Structure formats: C-alpha cells, structure tokens
Amino acid sequence: MAKFKIEIDSETCLGYKECGLCVSACEESIIVPDEKTGKVKVDKTREINCDGLGACLDVCPVGALKITSESGFSCGGHSGNPCPGSAVKSFNRSEQRSEMLQNKETESELLNWPVQLHLLNPNASYFKNADLIIAADCVPFAYPDFHNNLLKGKVLAIACPKLDDTKDYMLKIRQIVEKNNIKNVTVAIMTVPCCSGLYSLVNRALDGLDVNITKKVISLDGKLMD
C-alpha cells in the first residue's frame, strides 16, 4: 500500500498536451500522460515512490490534483486543503499604496506569485500582454533599487543559470512569451561570468519572435551598469 495516494480529477484536468506541467514536475514519474483520454493518470506501479512533497500540486493551474496520506491528511484539489506556497496569485499594488505610505514602509512592486521559473505556469492570467522581467536570483539582493527601478510594472521570473536545472527553461520562456503576446522582456543579471548564460538562454529561447529584449547588468557592489 502506498504511503501517499495521488488523485486526479480528470474533468478538471486540462490535459497533458494543453498543460502537462504535473508530468514534468513529478520527479518520480508517477504522473504520466493518458493517451486514451488526453489527460494525465497515475502510474500505480510507481505510486509507492511518492514523497508527498507536492511538486505536482504546485504547478497545476486548476487544482486537479490531490495527495492523501495514510494518516488521512490531504493536500490540493478544489475540495482538499490548499497548498498556498506556490499557488498562483496576483497583487493589486494600488490598493495597498496608501496603507504602506501611512506606515512609512517601502512598498513591494511584486505583481505575481510564484516567481521561480520552474514553478511558473505559462497559462497564468497575469502574463497576458505583460512586460516580463527575468532576473538572476542574486540580482534583487545585490541591487537595492530593484523594486522601483527594474521590477515596477513587470511580471517577474527568477532563475540561476549556474545552479538550476535549466534544460526546460528555453521551452518554458518561449511558451510564456508566445502564449501571452509579451512584447518586452528585460533580463537582469550580475557581472559574474556564469550569469551571462541567462541572457544567452533567453535570446535563444525567443529567437524568431517579435520581442524587444533589454539587458540590465548589476555590479557586485550593487550598481546598475547597463
């Protein structure tokens, strides 16, 4: 008997051709395409390997997945307990501005959640006709004016070309831009050599598309150089 059981709502599921993000997210290859229905299904021979961490739940845009443990705990799905850590969210910053000013706090310009490129869903509504910024992980920490000068008004994706498994990044970036009529992409990187790989990756991913790509470079002491 599996320690964790994965349930899939086939009526809610968008299908592995339209979405398929859960198939890619499941490192144990438990969730697989169902050729008969066009949806996804659980490979019962592998279900015993489920670690229960819910990477598949994090990327599903419609809540079609649910994980239940032997103890009765459930996570995901429209009727189960949500997993908010990577749930898709948009933020209306204009509604929060007056409150932030009254409290003398610096206002965040973040418009979307999640932000890590692996977790982003190309079908998320906040991408539609948006300006996109793809930033190396270190940039927001090194550049003190990141929110006001680079992030404001843009949807964010973060990635590290040195430490991340980037084999699927080119396809993900192209899907995000093509599906959502994105015309402006900013790539923010550090001056270290490995960071230039992110700018190169974005250029290759968007080759042939009508997109304006702007490069911003941050020095190690936090200065905007480019």
TrEMBL record:
Q: Where are the transmembrane segments?
A: none
Q: Which InterPro entries match?
A: 4Fe4S_Fe-S-bd (IPR017896), Corrinoid_activation_enz (IPR052911)
Q: Which domain of life is it from?
A: Archaea
Q: One Pfam family, please name it.
A: Fer4_7
Q: Which residues form the 4Fe-4S ferredoxin-type domain?
A: 4-36, 38-70
The name this protein carries in UniProt is Ferredoxin
Instruction: Please give the organism.
Output: Methanococcus maripaludis (strain DSM 14266 / JCM 13030 / NBRC 101832 / S2 / LL)
